[in-house]
Amino acid sequence: MASEHTTWKPTTEHGDLSTHDREKLPDSAYAFPKQRKEPLTDKSHVQNALARFDQVDGVSDEDRDLAFRNIKKAAKHFGLDVDEKDWHDLGKHPHTSNRSH
């Protein structure tokens, strides 16, 4: 059974996420913290991380497991539903729905 451990923590200091701003983000703001890929700083970035999940290169399956758990945690924080139970399910149907609609 896969671990439920996550590393993502919300951050409010992200600005417009220019290159300079990204350098200031803690590792815990990223879906892939070790590689510092896919920042999860707001609802839009969580949606983008889901949409681009299969395009992230240079990561292991273990990295993807952690990233998916981080994305799910961030999605819950920002009020997004993620229907997929596993990252292998991504791409089969739309990734998120907005609970406020």
Task: Summarize the topology.
Layout: H1 19-24, E1 30-32, E2 37-39, H2 43-51, H3 61-77, E3 80-82, E4 96-98
Antiparallel strand pairs: 1-2, 3-4
Describe this structure in words.
27% of the residues are buried. The protein has helices spanning 19-24, 43-51, 61-77; strands at residues 30-32, 37-39, 80-82, 96-98. It starts with 18 loop residues before the first helix and ends with a strand. It has 101 residues and is an alpha+beta fold. A two-stranded antiparallel sheet has the order 1-2. Strands 3-4 form a two-stranded antiparallel ribbon. The protein has a domain at 28-92. The chain is built from three helices and four strands. The longest helix is centred in the C-terminal third of the chain and has 17 residues, at 61-77.
Give the beta-strand count: 4
Helix content: 25-40%
| Radius of gyration, whole Å | 13 Å
Spatial order of the strands forming the largest sheet: 1-2
Distance between the termini: 34 Å
Q: Which structural class best describes the helix and strand composition?
A: alpha+beta
Count of individual helical segments:
3
Mean pLDDT: 84
How do the SSEs run, as a string of H and E? HEEHHEE
Low-confidence stretches: none
Form type: globular
Proportion of strand residues: 5-15%
Largest sheet report: 2 strands, antiparallel
In short:
This protein is an alpha+beta fold and 101 residues long. The chain has helices at 19-24, 43-51, 61-77; strands at residues 30-32, 37-39, 80-82, 96-98.
